[in-house]
Amino acid sequence: MKATNRKSSPEPGRAAGARPARAARQGTRRADTTEKSRAATTEKPRAAKPESRLAMVRRARRINRELAEVYPYAHPELDFRNSFELLVATVLSAQTTDLRVNQTTPALFAKYPTPEDLAAAVPEEVEELIRPTGFFRAKTKSIMGLSAALRDDFGGEVPGRLEDLVKLPGVGRKTAFVVLGNAFGVPGITVDTHFMRLARRWRWTESDDPVKIEAEVATIFPKSEWTMLSHRVIFHGRRICHARKPACGACPITHLCPSYGEGETDPEKAAKLLKYEKGGFPGQRLNPPPDYPGRPAPPLGAGG
Question: 111 catalytic, yes or no?
Fold first, then answer.
């Protein structure tokens, strides 16, 4: 029996020309996949999730704990023997360094040891004594004015209440909290330029108003920590986290800092930016506390 030579019939459901159509569809799918892959590689990374309030508070408190280990000797960097000397020294420290104030006040307090003495002084003589601190005319008016107020309204004694201190000439909340925290043991947050800068770098606040910063930071930390927190933050700002060139590569809390990288990150270069005892240099006080690990500052006229 001869084999019949038949043409194969298309499979059921497959029309002539189906194969080219399927190839076209596959080509389209491949093109779509390629476009999606290309889009994925050029797509901007998704923004990091904003830090929650709770996470920020935990991070802030951890910064405080770790700074306490870095600066167990943190202290006010103005030389003083009593609340009056601290009050006057703090007023004089505006727009200058604590070192310059410490080099200036020995002669001032030797001549005018009490509020009564300073209130009765000759202004021109006081101006000459405090000239190295800058703005000496305005500062003379303030320290003589507050001395007169202490003499006339407070029996020659520095008051231990915020509401009384801020009424004195030249005394604002920052100065008042320095005195309250370090002469009277009353907790307070000292918001100076260093504290403001670091509070913003660490995302504790977005404000640049000292009163608002004080209020916001006060909600993060227990009141018992306020005074020492101020010392630690200010110490860190003066020694490592500087305004213009932070020494990021030498900072011990980079793992907690959202602003890491704003300054020098190379460890060797960063180490050269360290100040005071961290850099092996004298501190700001002529008479530092016994536990201070650095060298005392030189008196006026001896390299200061």
Answer: no
Cβ neighbours of residue 295 closer than 8 Å, sequence gap 6 or more: 277, 281, 282, 283
Beta carbons within 10 angstroms of residue 100's beta carbon: 19
Q: One of 79, 98, 174, 278 is an active-site residue; which one?
A: 174
Using 70 as the pLDDT threshold, list the residues of the chain that sit under it: 1-48, 303-304
Alpha-carbon separation of residue 294 from 267, 275, 282, 283 (angstroms): 21, 11, 6, 6
CB–CB of 252/266 below 8 Å? no
CA distances (Å), 116 to each of 60, 129, 130, in order? Answer: 44, 17, 18
> Is 174 one of the annotated active-site residues of the chain?
yes
Within the chain, residue ranges assigned H as helices are 18-42, 53-70, 83-92, 98-111, 115-119, 123-130, 136-153, 162-165, 173-183, 193-201, 210-218, 226-239, 267-271
Per-residue pLDDT tens for 76-125? 999 999 999 999 999 999 999 999 999 999 999 999 999 999 999 999 99
User: Which of 79, 139, 192, 278 is the catalytic position?
Assistant: 192
